[in-house]
Design a protein that fits this description.
Elements lengths: L11 E3 L4 E6 L2 E10 L2 E8 L7 H18 L2 E4 L2 H9 L14
Length: 102
């Protein structure tokens, strides 16, 4: 069995478009964001047409969480799939601002 899940995904922070981007075989996978007072609001996930690779989305989100830890940002999940990611990965709940429950 071949492990198709890359350990490290190359992610580009496209500050002009305000999104984190990763190239996947199907095209561009991105998570749009906005900043406000040391908080990063993850507002939208953009996927190539017919893209159903949830593990790849999770890898992208994990990389964004690690970057947020490094930069000491709080993360505000606006997109429902990102809220589900927090439910599946409780170790990142410490990144949520006080008062936000998922």
């Amino acid at each position: 069995m071949i492990n198709m899940e890359p350990a490290v995904m190359e992610i580009k922070d496209n500050t002009f478009a305000r999104q984190f981007e990763a190239t996947v075989p199907e095209g561009l996978l991105s998570v749009e964001y906005s900043f406000q007072e040391k908080k990063i609001f993850l507002t939208k996930i953009n996927m190539p047409e017919n893209f159903e690779n949830q593990p790849m989305i999770d890898i992208l989100l994990k990389n964004i969480m690690e970057l947020s830890i490094e930069k000491k940002f709080r993360v505000v999940p606006i997109h429902p799939k990102i809220a589900v990611f927090f439910k599946k990965n409780p170790k990142y709940k410490e990144l949520l601002p006080p008062g936000i429950r998922i």
